[in-house]
Amino acid sequence: MKHTVIVCEGITDRDLISIYLQQVSGYSFTKNTQKFGLDQEQKFVTIQKEDDFIYIIPSIGKTKIKKVFEKICEKTKYEREEDNLIGKMYIFTDSDEDSEKDLISLVDDRIPATNTWIDIPIKNEAFDSITINTI
Amino acid sequence: MVYNDSYYKEITIENYRSIEKIEMKDLSNINLLFGNNNCGKTSILEAIFAHACQFNVGYFFNIILPKRTQGLFFGFYDLGESIVNLFRKGSYTFENMKFSITSKNKANEETNTIYNFTPSNNLDEINPNTYEEFTIIKDTSYKHEATKNNQPEYLGELTISNRKESKKFPIYQNLQFPRIQQSRDASYIDILEHRKPPSAITIYSALKRTNTLQEFIQEMQKVFPEINDIETIPFKNNASNIYIDSKGEKIPFSIFGDGMRRWYYLIGNMVANKNSVQLIEEIDSTFHPESIPMLSKTLVDYSVRYNNQIVMTSHNQEFLKIMLDTFKNDEGILRDKIRVYTLKKIKNETKLLSLNGEEARKNIEDYGLELR
Fold it and tell me: What is the tens place of the pLDDT at every residue in A35-74?
């Protein structure tokens, strides 16, 4: 099983990304079986291709990306089923007028640069240490 | 006994039954061992009980050995095998079996109990290595201590030690031992304990003697409002029985349902055995979901009031969820008084994963995680 999270800003981003992945990469909608401790308005969708699951989460505002990111990390910290571990996380946001430093501070200061894959290490009691590949 | 001195803050168990090594840290008032069947939850309770009993081996054997078989053994070898199986296979030879439990209290003082068993040659029948002796030439000059005693009922010699002293106990089939002060008061409560009539009388007596019967009845009425009173009525032959006064009728306690009788036994036992560690098997067993919030509140309340530390097992996620939800508006209790330990096999290694009540609730509510 492969689990990927895509965090975007709004509902329109969520729908555009999910339609794109369905049309271009052969994913299809499936029932939400995961919980991420999100706010009520942060309604995510799940798309699936065989054993490959993608969860597209709208943070509903740039300033809430950090909280969603922290929730994903916390869920990973507590996860006890190896099959359910999240391996990759994409964070999509408009740069608008923000500098790279501003954009990074919206998510996590451990991220050295935007548009670059980095490993976020998370301590997990069941599996000792886990990394989420994040861009 | 001073509560802070006896309260277990950490426990390490080595080589007990199937446990190779388990470390329980940050223990609190209510400690729930959670996990699937046959993962070792009951073994942890038993090991803690052995530690509390320490030199009082009679109390330990007479509670732990019969409970898995309702006290029925197919004679000498069956009983011998029950003793041998307390020790983790693979960590011992038949001549040298050892398990140990180490605890730390709140003041970080360490207590240690080691059980070391040398089986008699009478148990060679169940020694998997015995038959090798017919084909392999061995040094026969070595005779272990237990061999000297050739009485037919002799099972072997148990040595119990802590860091200060060591005592030897010859073990015979009748399991008679001297009564020795325990390291810590402990009650072991299995699933069927509440069905034994003498248990109900013992608790009634303790409640009466401590003037806590009325208060106890009021607690029970919150869940079982049909109860007016609990009393004993003597028979002509000087025996007596417990009766529940319900709507003016005296109804024998024994004909009430398991849920009520177990409640009476569990909660009554906490009052009767203050300052003790209460080891409870399958806490959710026999309780209707509607009674779990009141049971949970009473367990927490009584554990604080009567200085009892509870270690209990369950494999029921519904029970855990209801118990944690009961305190959703009291994060202090979830964080400080409740611990959830999960025994889980991960990549061929059994791990003990720990959460406080607040974290456990977040895992279930926010992340939908399965804690078994």
Answer: 999 999 999 999 999 999 999 999 999 999 999 999 999 9
**Contact (CB<8Å) B346/A125:** no
CB atoms within 10 A of CB A24: 8
The partner residue sitting opposite A126, judged by closest CB among B353, B359, B362, is B353
| Structural domain includes residue B301 | no
Q: Which chain A residues are within 8 Å of B362, Cβ to Cβ?
A: 37, 78
Q: Is B359 on the interface with A (CB under 8 A)?
A: yes
- Predicted confidence at residue B317, as pLDDT, reads 92
* A75: nearest CB among B346, B365, B367: B367
B180 and B242 in a single domain? The answer is no
CB contact B366 to A (< 8 Å): yes
Q: For a pLDDT cut of 70, what percent of chain A falls above it?
A: 100
Cα dist. A99→A26, A60, A68, B3, B114 in Å? 35, 21, 21, 58, 64
Assembly ipTM: 0.88
Same domain, B54 and B198: no
Give domain status of residue B77, yes or no: yes
